[in-house]
């Protein structure tokens, strides 16, 4: 038999010849002609013109010829619906044929002819065939219902075929059952809410029985259908699992995977402390491993599914690492998938083996695979801390190979290792820098630039390195440009003196010469940040980075659950929900894992609540990229930078947060890293520093960088603090009122401790002993921290100085005035009462310096009603002296700016009870009167605070 | 379900195209230009062309056996230079599609031998007929060759009697779809082949990185009637269960996992671990299994590679056979990879023949026979051309092929009992043959 000759006829007038042959009287010739037609059809020639002639051959006893004609009909009927009707009679007749094979053939073919007129004629024969005595016909008819439904769903419902189909689920022949299940499942998919399959314990039982008897394909249909069922409780779930597990030994991988799907799903419902649960877990591993000895295409499907299973239940395969080792002649798609799973299974127990393997792979030929292997080494370092060192040295070995893409990939992963283990492996930076020139891929260049920027302080020639990248700035990809910009800004913040030019250069390259809006925006943000507030810039740019997560590429848990319900299918291969690649209503229904039920006594385990199962529950932290940080920045009400040039200067000062940020803080001073105040002696340079600042100011509006620099160099100049202000002692209790005991005293704050300093004088004739002191409840909970230390008896006309440490943890009651303190002193004679007022500055704590941003936010946040303004008259200090004086009393200057000769000091105070007071002190040169605005959430304290200001500044 | 099935030759020309569902024609496929408003059948060709353009003619190596083009998924397998592609628009069972494609290949091979362009063209009518039968609306149907051959014969079935017809249909759909009734042999005979492939990956230092045996029990049976068979082997679980009563000298083996031909009653295996079945007539693969414990590694390869300067390599490889001296291994072949820039090789071997094959970049050392507990050695000097290629030679592993007359896993067939209650022959009348063959799978030693 040499049918191949039919493929070779390419003569002209072929159709005409064929027509003649088709109408030939000789049967053999006819058959030959039809074969030729089919061959032409196969290779894509249009032979629809022969329709009537081919259909004429239909009436034949020759089954082979009949099948060929049917094949032709299926192909062309739709384009020639009227002609197709000619075939109907034959079909109907064939449906009544004595031979069951012919009956089935007719009904099968008719279902494939998608012509409305024909489908009408199909209904009656189909109804008969569904009840045919021969199972072969019934199983064919069952599928035909699905075909008809695809053409005309309404017709199928109207004709009641669905019910007949449902009846077939109870058919005695397993193959009929299987096909009926397949057809119903498909129909049900396009009617998500219909209860077509109506799965209940009885029907499930029937399916499970048929499962043991039908063909491998039938088993797949039934298992896939079972997977859609949700058992009522854990017992039913277990009994189904028990009946499905034998399928794990089937030779057909699809049967195995579908069984795995059912088990994975129903397992969710089993209580974890059940013996059966752990038995089941153990049973799942061997068949999954066996799938890896199947043909490569199936291995690929299996591996994609194992990837999901490992994420959902890592315990199943945790001991099976070895089987995922890559074989030299595995196809590349199998290799890549195996590598993925190896990383997921890597743990402290097997890391040595895994690393040895990965090192082998890194010398392979396929570039993608090698890259992935190198990347995997990095992932291992991050995942298993104990192995980090070995991973790093492996990576260094690989870098030594000088194979370009290996080096680049290694640098990309080393960057992540640096992030994960800061200050541990930076010694390798030198080696990395040697390879700078060989990097030609954006990702590697960006990673290297990141490393240089991040560790600028450790790399002596960081500026040179970055400068070398800068030369070809415009030829770089955006990723590299952005990273370079950030790295240079980092470098500048770390080594401001040497890198001004560089930063200016990159900022102008990014903002003025680039068409990329991302780059420009980031450039402007840095520019503005540097010019308005370099300290803030430091905080933003050099902020502590969030931890890098251990696992990457984890599938999001809800998607994972859905994909577990689709094990074995395309969705599990693509790792996408069906809705992502299936059109129309089919398969869009989202499947979920069943929740563990609470029925039965055995389910009262503590785990029951966690329906999510044992999957890694803690969502891995996500690393925000630099872009995110910037995004946040932009969310502040910042005037958007215009693209035409540097940001517009803002003028004057109005109240309101936006302005505070925009212009109000232009010349912020100070630096977190050098705490102000304390006992540091005054710095003589300070005055000059401050003097210079206002001069630079206007310039900064036009050349932000320069201005910013001016400010940066003035860091920490503020100082010259004095001790905290201590009011003079006054007499609190005259002798007359206290039977000869006179008490005078004051309050002081020394080294963070509030002290009440008392002078007790005995003006009576007798000796006084047994002194004790107590406070009444007061506004800030002041209470003696120890007993009153008067150890020796106090003789007549003797005086003793006592210092009593106070705590602020006593009972609280609001007093009027706020700083009033009622004291009771007892001695051997009597108990005496007096009240005194303490300066509230005693309560100002040492850590009262507010973060600048917090200050801004808080200032904005406190309603304007809470603001009070006071005048301090006749004060002849300049703003800086005032500031340092105030600092001695824990009133901290956060920022200073000068507007039209008026110095504005922004200060913060924290009270011992946690109340923050924000202050703005305006000092006009030559005007002895200061204006002070206080903002506090508890405005009552403002008056007292003001008094303190006055007291501190005037003394 | 499967929307269509196409067979292409290596040039991407369509040899067979069978469409089961209309939806697969609805592109729009990139790179495939067709006239607007073309006919249905022509639109279907879009999918056909999409696969050709994007997969067969793709410039790079195939990165996945599943390809999604314009929301249409293509599954493909390749047999020699023939491509079989299944197409679908739905979320089908991917494992099933591949299993089906393999089955399709098996069926075709059973009907007309090797899958080649020539054979496919010669048998295209038959293939269409098969495709019509084993795939209905994209659902795989009974695809057992034994059953198919009873009614897809290419000679028409008119001649069949009514009885025969119903026998066919009940067999195709029945519980024992793989065997027909009424088979008769004068001599009842069966052959069991235990075929194992032993896989090894060894480090240069001789450490076993991974080793496993994947084995198959292939049964050829020529038995009359519907014989009920029971197969027993030295499965550790079974032996342990039988306890002390049995012969204790018998070595039992731990089977990691096994899968069975669909004729085996799986639920019975699950419950009692007994393997019972009614076999298909002729040849079938009864079971597959995998073991990883206590594997007898028939050969040990000890490599020694020394780089002498930039232009010379010295290789010495010793092989040791590790089995009973009375047994003979055959078809031994050791393949020692050489670098791409090899200019010349000098080989000295104690036994067998060794040749440098430039086209395969390897030294191939062949030994016809080798008894157990022996040792042999080859040494080679490889001259290299100096290159400025920075990339190091990847040093592929040394691989080995061989055949030994025992099962490296240690598996032994204990019995295969045959019962046919309706016919008058008993287990004793059946002539049984058992043979063990251990072959090398991927048997590699890194160097």
TrEMBL record, chain B:
PROSITE patterns: CLAT_ADAPTOR_M_1 (PS00990), MHD (PS51072)
Chief place of localization: membrane
Name of the protein: MHD domain-containing protein
Residues in MHD domain copies: 187-446
Membrane topology: Peripheral membrane protein
Pfam short name (any one): Adap_comp_sub
Statement: the UniProt record of this protein carries the keyword Protein transport: yes
GO cellular component terms, A-Z: clathrin adaptor complex; clathrin-coated pit; plasma membrane
GO BP term, example: endocytosis
Annotated coiled-coil segments of the chain: none
CDD domains: AP-2_Mu2_Cterm, AP2_Mu_N
Family: Belongs to the adaptor complexes medium subunit family.
Stretches that traverse the bilayer: none
Keywords: Cell membrane, Coated pit, Endocytosis, Lipid-binding, Membrane, Protein transport, Transport
């Amino acid at each position: 038999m040499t049918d191949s000759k039919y493929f070779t006829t390419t003569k002209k007038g072929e159709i005409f010849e064929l027509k003649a042959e088709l109408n030939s009287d000789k049967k053999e010739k006819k058959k030959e002609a039809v074969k030729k037609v089919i061959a032409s059809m196969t290779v894509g020639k249009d032979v629809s013109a022969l329709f009537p002639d081919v259909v004429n051959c239909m009436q034949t006893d020759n089954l082979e010829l009949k099948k060929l004609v049917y094949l032709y009909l299926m192909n062309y009927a739709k384009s020639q619906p009227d002609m197709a009707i000619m075939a109907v009679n034959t079909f109907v007749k064939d449906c009544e044929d004595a031979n069951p094979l012919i009956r089935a053939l007719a009904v099968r073919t008719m279902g494939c002819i998608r012509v409305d007129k024909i489908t009408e004629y199909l209904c009656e024969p189909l109804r008969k065939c569904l009840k045919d005595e021969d199972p072969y016909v019934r199983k064919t008819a069952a599928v035909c219902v699905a075909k008809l439904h695809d053409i005309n769903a309404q017709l199928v419902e109207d004709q009641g075929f669905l019910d007949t189909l449902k009846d077939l689920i109870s058919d005695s022949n397993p193959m009929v059952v299987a096909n009926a299940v397949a057809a119903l499942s498909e129909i049900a998919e396009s009617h998500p809410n219909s209860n077509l399959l109506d799965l209940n314990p009885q029907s499930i039982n029937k399916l499970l029985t048929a499962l043991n008897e039908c063909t491998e394909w039938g088993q797949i249909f039934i298992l896939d259908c079972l997977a859609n069922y949700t058992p009522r409780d854990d017992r039913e779930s277990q009994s189904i699992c028990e009946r499905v597990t034998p399928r794990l030994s089937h030779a057909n991988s699809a049967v195995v995977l579908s069984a795995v799907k059912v088990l994975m799903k129903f397992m969710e419902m089993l209580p974890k402390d059940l013996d059966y649960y752990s038995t089941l877990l153990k049973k799942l591993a061997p068949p999954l491993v066996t799938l890896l000895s199947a043909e490569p295409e199936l291995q690929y499907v299996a591996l994609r599914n194992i990837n999901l299973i490992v994420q959902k239940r890592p315990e199943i395969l945790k001991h099976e690492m070895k089987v995922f080792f890559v074989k030299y002649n595995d196809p590349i798609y199998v290799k890549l998938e195996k590598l993925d799973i190896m990383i997921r299974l890597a743990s402290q127990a097997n890391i040595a083996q895994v690393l040895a393997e990965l090192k082998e792979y890194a010398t392979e030929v396929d570039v993608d695979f090698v890259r992935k292997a190198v990347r995997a080494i990095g992932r291992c370092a991050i995942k298993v801390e104990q192995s980090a060192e070995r991973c790093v040295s492996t990576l260094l070995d690989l870098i030594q190979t000088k194979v370009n893409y290996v080096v680049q990939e290694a640098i990309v992963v080393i960057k992540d290792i640096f992030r994960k283990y800061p200050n541990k492996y930076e010694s390798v930076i030198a080696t990395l820098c040697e390879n700078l020139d060989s990097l030609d891929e954006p990702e590697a260049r960006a990673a290297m630039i990141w490393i240089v920027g991040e560790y600028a302080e450790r790399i002596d020639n960081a500026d040179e390195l970055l400068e070398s990248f800068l030369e070809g700035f415009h030829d770089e990809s955006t990723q590299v440009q952005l990273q370079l910009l950030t790295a240079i800004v980092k470098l500048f913040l770390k080594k401001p003196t040497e890198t001004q030019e560089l930063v200016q250069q990159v900022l102008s390259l990014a903002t003025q010469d680039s068409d990329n809006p991302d780059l420009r925006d980031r450039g402007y943000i840095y520019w503005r940040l540097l010019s308005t507030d370099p300290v803030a810039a430091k905080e933003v740019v050099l902020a502590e980075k969030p931890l890098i997560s251990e696992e990457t590429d984890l599938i999001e848990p809800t998607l994972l659950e859905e994909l577990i319900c689709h094990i074995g299918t395309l969705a599990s291969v693509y790792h996408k929900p069906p809705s992502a690649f299936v059109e129309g209503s089919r398969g869009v229904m989202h499947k979920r894992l069943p929740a563990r039920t609470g029925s039965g006594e055995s389910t009262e385990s503590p785990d029951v609540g966690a329906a999510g199962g044992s999957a890694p529950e803690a969502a891995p932290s996500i690393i925000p990229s630099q872009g995110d940080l910037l995004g946040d920045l932009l969310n502040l009400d910042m005037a958007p930078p215009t693209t035409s040039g540097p940001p517009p200067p803002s003028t004057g000062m109005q109240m309101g947060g936006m302005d505070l940020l925009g212009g109000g803080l232009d010349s912020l001073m100070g630096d977190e890293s050098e705490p102000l105040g304390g006992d540091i002696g005054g710095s003589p340079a300070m005055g000059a520093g401050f003097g210079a600042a206002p001069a630079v100011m206007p310039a900064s509006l036009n050349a932000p960088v320069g201005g910013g620099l001016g400010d940066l160099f003035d860091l920490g100049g503020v100082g010259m603090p004095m001790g905290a202000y201590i009011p003079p002692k006054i007499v609190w209790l005259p002798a007359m009122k206290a039977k000869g005991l006179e008490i005078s005293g004051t309050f002081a704050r020394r080294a963070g401790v509030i002290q009440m300093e008392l002078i007790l004088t005995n003006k009576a004739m007798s000796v006084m002993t047994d002194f004790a002191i107590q406070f009444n409840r007061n506004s800030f909970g002041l209470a003696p921290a120890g007993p009153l230390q008067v150890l020796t008896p106090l003789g007549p006309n003797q005086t003793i100085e006592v210092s009593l440490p106070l705590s602020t943890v006593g009972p609280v009651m609001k007093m009027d005035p706020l700083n009033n303190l009622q004291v009771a002193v007892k001695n051997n004679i009597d108990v005496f009462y007096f009240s005194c007022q303490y300066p509230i500055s005693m309560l100002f704590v040492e850590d009262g310096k507010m973060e600048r941003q917090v200050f801004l936010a808080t200032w904005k946040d406190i309603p304007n009603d809470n603001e009070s303004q006071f005048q301090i008259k006749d004060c002849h200090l300049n703003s800086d002296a005032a500031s340092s004086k105030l600092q001695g009393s824990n009133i901290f200057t956060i920022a200073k700016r000068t507007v039209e000769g008026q110095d504005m000091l922004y200060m913060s105070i924290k009270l011992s009870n946690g109340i923050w007071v924000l202050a703005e002190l305006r000092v006009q040169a030559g005007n002895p009167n200061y204006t002070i605005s206080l903002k506090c959430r508890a405005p009552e304290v403002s008056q007292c605070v003001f008094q303190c200001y006055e007291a501190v500044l005037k003394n | 379900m499967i929307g269509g099935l196409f067979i292409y030759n290596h040039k991407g020309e369509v040899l067979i195209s069978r469409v089961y569902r209309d939806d697969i024609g609805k592109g729009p496929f990139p790179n495939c230009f067709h006239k607007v408003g073309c006919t249905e059948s022509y639109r279907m060709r879009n999918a056909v062309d999409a696969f050709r353009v994007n997969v067969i003619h793709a410039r790079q190596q195939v990165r996945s056996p599943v390809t999604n083009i314009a929301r249409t998924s293509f599954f493909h397998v390749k047999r020699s230079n023939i491509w079989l592609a299944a197409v679908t628009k739905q979320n089908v069972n991917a494992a099933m599609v591949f299993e089906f494609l393999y089955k399709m290949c098996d069926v075709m091979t059973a009907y007309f031998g090797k899958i080649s362009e020539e054979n496919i063209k010669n048998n295209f009518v038959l293939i269409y007929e098969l495709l019509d039968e084993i795939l209905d609306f994209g659902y795989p149907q009974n695809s057992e060759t034994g059953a198919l051959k009873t009614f897809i014969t290419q000679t028409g079935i008119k001649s069949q009697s009514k009885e025969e017809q119903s026998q066919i249909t009940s067999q195709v759909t029945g519980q024992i779809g793989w065997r027909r009734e009424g088979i008769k042999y004068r001599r009842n005979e069966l052959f069991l082949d235990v075929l194992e492939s032993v896989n090894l990956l060894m480090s240069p230092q001789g450490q076993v990185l991974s080793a496993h045996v994947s084995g198959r029990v292939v049964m050829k049976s020529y038995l009359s009637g519907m014989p009920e068979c029971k197969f027993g082997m030295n499965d550790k679980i079974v032996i342990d269960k039988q306890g002390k009563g049995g012969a204790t000298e018998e070595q039992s083996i731990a089977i990691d996992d096994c899968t069975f031909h669909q004729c085996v009653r799986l639920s019975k295996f699950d419950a009692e671990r007994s393997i019972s079945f009614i076999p298909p007539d002729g040849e079938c693969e009864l079971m597959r299994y995998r073991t990883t414990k206590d594997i007898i590694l028939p050969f040990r390869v000890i490599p020694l590679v020394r780089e002498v300067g930039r232009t010379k390599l010295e290789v010495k490889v010793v092989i040791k056979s590790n089995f009973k001296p009375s047994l003979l291994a055959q078809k031994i072949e050791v393949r020692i990879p050489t670098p791409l820039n090899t200019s010349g090789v000098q080989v000295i071997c104690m036994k067998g023949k060794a040749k440098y094959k430039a086209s395969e970049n390897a030294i191939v050392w062949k030994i016809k026979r080798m008894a157990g507990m022996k040792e042999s050695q080859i040494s080679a000097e490889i001259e290299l051309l100096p290159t400025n290629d920075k990339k190091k030679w990847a040093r592929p592993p040394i691989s080995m092929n061989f055949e030994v007359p025992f099962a490296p896993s240690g598996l032994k067939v204990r019995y295969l009992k045959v019962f046919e209650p309706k016919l008058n022959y008993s287990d004793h009348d059946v002539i049984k043959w058992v043979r063990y063959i251990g072959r090398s799978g991927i048997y590699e030693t890194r160097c």
